[in-house]
Design a protein that fits this description.
By secondary structure, the chain is an all-beta fold. About 0% of the residues lie in helices and about 50% in strands. The strands form ten sheets. Strands 25, 27, 28, 30, 35, 38, 39 and 41 form an eight-stranded antiparallel beta sheet that branches.
Length: about 500
C-alpha cells in the first residue's frame, strides 16, 4: 500500500486542472495578478509534481496594468490534451477576458492568446463525438456553446446547462464524455468554507442534466476537518483505469475563526464509481494510493545564486516582470532590482518572489543597496498586507503593513557592505494575545480569558557576522491571511527594491 501526503502541490496553487498524455500528467493552476501566468506542472504518478513552465509566460501573452487590483488577473484555467496538442483556456480579469493558447509541448512554447468572445469566467473545453468543441463557462449559471478553438469564434448562442443544487456561485465547470453519459462537474457555495462540489449527467448535449440525488458529492463545510474549502475539482483517468480528482483546499490554523496564509492548495483524491456516478473521496492529509507507482522528481533547489542569465520559473512578480527593473546578470552572480515606486503599498513596486510552500520555513537573502538604495525581503499577500525587513544605508528595519496602517516596528544600525536579511515563519510558539471577558459581577472571579492565536508567527531580522539571527520583530501571521485580507491568493516571499537599486547575491527559501 502506497501512502502519499496532501496537498500534492502545497502553497498558493488554486483551481487545478489536469490532463493525461500517455503515461504523463500535466496540471495548470490559477495565478491571479502574478506573472508569468498559469504555472504548468508535470507528473508521472499524480503525486510528485515539477514546475516545467507557464502557459502565459511571455510579456506579449500576459502583462497586467497597475490598475488591475490584487486577486484579479488570471482565473481558473482548463488544461486539455486533444488531437496531439495541449489546449489551455482561462479568463484574464482586468485584461482581455477569455483567451485560449495551444502548445505541442506543455513546457512551451505556447501560442499567442486567441480571444474567445464570451462573458463570464472559468471556461472549460471538451470535444464531442463529431469533433465539435464546446466551451462551458460560468455566467449567471453554467452555460455552454460550440466554438472554433483555432480562431476563438463562437458558433451560436450559449445555452443554459445545469447550475448546481441551488447554492451560491456555481462555477468551475468541467464537462466530460465518459461511457454513455456526459458528466458536468461544478463547484458551488463560494470558494470559502462553504465550498462544495456537485455533479449531474445527461445522455446528450446540451442536456437536460439530471443531478446526483445526494449533491453535493464533496464538501467539508461545517466540519472540524483540517482540510477546508474543498472544491473546484477536475477528473482524470490513470493509465491503469483508476480515476482521480485534483481539487483545491485550505489548511486553516490557529484559534477561531482559524486562518490560512499559504492560500488555496492542490489536493489529490481517488474517485470511486457507484451506480454510474463519480464520487470523490475526502481529501485527507495522508492518503492511500494502492494503484500508484511512485515517481519522485529531484528536490527543487531551495537556494538561487542567480548565476543564470534568466530567472528560474519559480520566481514571479505582480502584474509584470519589467526587464528594465528586474535585471539578472547585470552584476555577475547577482539579481539586481531597480525601484519603480517608493514602496510596496501601491501597484508598481518591484517585487520578485516565490510561493510559500511550507508552514514552517525560513527565507534568507544577501543584499547590498549601496549608499542611496533601499530594498529587502518581504512576505506579501497584497499591497495592503505584507511584512518587510529592509536595508537602507546603515540601517536595517522591520516594517508591517496591515490594511490602512503602515508602521516601522524596529530598526538597527549595521556596518557597511552586504547584509543577510531573514524572515522565519513558525507555527510553534505562536503569539497568544489574550482577551479577558469580565463578568457582570465585579466580585466574581474573572474567567481565564479567550485565547486569540493566529496560524503562525513571523520573525523578521538580520544575521550578525557570526551567523546568529538578530530578531527585530515578531509579528502575528493572521494579518497575512485571506480571512483578514480577503482575496484569492496566498503568501509569496521574496525580494524588492523601493529606492535606487538593490543587488541580491542569493536568496533561499527552505523548510524550517
Amino acid at each position: 500500500m502506497t501512502l502519499f501526503e496532501n496537498p500534492v502541490i502545497p502553497g498558493f496553487s488554486p483551481d487545478p486542472s489536469i490532463c493525461r498524455a500517455g503515461d504523463d500528467y500535466y496540471l495548470a493552476t490559477s495565478s491571479f495578478e502574478y506573472v508569468p501566468g498559469v504555472p504548468v506542472r508535470h507528473s508521472r504518478d499524480l503525486v510528485h509534481w515539477r514546475l516545467i513552465g507557464h502557459a502565459l509566460g511571455r510579456p506579449d501573452q500576459l502583462e497586467l496594468a497597475d490598475e488591475v487590483p490584487s486577486s484579479c488577473g488570471v482565473y481558473a484555467p482548463t488544461l486539455r490534451y486533444h488531437d496531439g496538442r495541449f489546449w489551455m483556456i482561462t479568463t484574464v480579469v482586468g485584461g482581455p477576458g477569455n483567451v485560449l493558447v495551444t502548445a505541442e509541448d506543455p513546457a512551451g512554447p505556447w501560442s499567442d492568446p486567441v480571444p474567445v468572445d464570451l462573458p463570464g469566467i472559468d471556461p472549460d473545453l471538451v470535444w464531442d463525438e463529431r469533433g465539435d468543441c464546446w466551451c462551458v463557462f460560468s455566467h449567471g449559471g453554467i452555460r455552454a456553446v460550440r466554438i472554433d478553438p483555432e480562431t476563438g469564434r463562437v458558433l451560436g448562442e450559449p445555452v443554459a446547462m445545469w447550475s448546481g443544487s441551488g447554492l451560491k456561485y456555481p462555477e468551475g465547470p468541467h464537462l466530460y464524455r465518459i461511457g454513455e453519459w456526459w458528466y458536468l462537474l461544478l463547484s458551488e457555495g463560494g470558494t470559502e468554507r462553504g465550498h462544495a462540489m456537485s455533479v449531474a449527467r445527461a445522455r446528450t448535449l446540451p442536456g437536460p442534466f439530471e443531478p446526483h440525488p445526494d449533491n453535493p458529492v464533496l464538501s467539508h463545510r461545517s466540519t472540524s476537518h483540517p482540510v477546508q474549502s474543498t472544491g473546484h475539482g477536475d477528473l482524470v483517468q490513470a493509465g491503469d483505469g483508476t480515476w482521480w480528482m485534483v481539487l483545491l483546499g485550505t489548511r486553516p490554523r490557529g484559534d477561531t475563526p482559524e486562518f490560512h496564509g499559504m492560500g488555496r492548495e492542490t489536493f489529490l483524491v481517488p474517485v470511486r464509481w457507484e451506480d454510474g456516478w463519480p464520487l470523490p473521496e475526502s481529501p485527507e492529509l495522508s492518503c492511500e494510493a494502492p494503484a500508484l507507482t511512485p515517481h519522485p522528481w529531484p528536490e527543487e533547489p531551495t537556494r538561487d545564486d542567480f548565476d543564470a542569465p534568466e530567472l528560474a520559473p519559480c520566481w514571479v512578480s505582480p502584474r509584470r516582470m519589467d526587464p528594465a527593473a528586474v535585471r539578472p546578470g547585470e552584476l555577475p552572480g547577482h539579481l539586481v532590482l531597480h525601484a519603480r515606486a517608493e514602496g510596496l503599498d501601491r501597484p508598481g513596486g518591484v517585487f520578485v518572489g516565490r510561493r510559500q510552500q511550507d508552514a514552517d520555513c525560513s527565507a534568507r537573502t544577501r543584499i547590498d543597496t549601496g549608499a542611496d538604495g533601499r530594498g529587502g525581503l518581504a512576505v506579501r499577500l497584497d499591497e495592503a498586507h505584507h511584512y518587510q525587513v529592509e536595508r537602507e544605508g546603515d540601517t536595517v528595519r522591520a516594517v508591517a503593513r496591515i490594511g490602512p496602517l503602515r508602521q516601522t516596528v524596529a530598526e538597527r544600525r549595521v556596518g557597511p557592505g552586504p547584509v543577510t536579511l531573514r524572515i522565519d515563519v513558525t507555527t510553534t510558539g505562536v503569539l497568544p494575545p489574550t482577551v479577558t471577558v469580565r463578568p457582570a459581577d465585579p466580585e466574581a472571579e474573572p474567567p481565564s480569558g479567550l485565547r486569540i492565536g493566529g496560524p503562525d508567527t513571523l520573525r523578521l531580522g538580520h544575521e550578525r557576522a557570526d551567523g546568529t539571527f538578530e530578531v527585530l520583530a515578531e509579528l502575528d501571521g493572521r494579518y497575512l491571511t485571506t480571512e483578514v485580507a480577503g482575496g484569492f491568493t496566498g503568501r509569496v516571499i521574496g525580494m524588492y527594491a523601493t529606492r535606487g537599486s538593490a543587488a541580491f547575491d542569493w536568496c533561499e527559501l527552505s523548510r524550517a
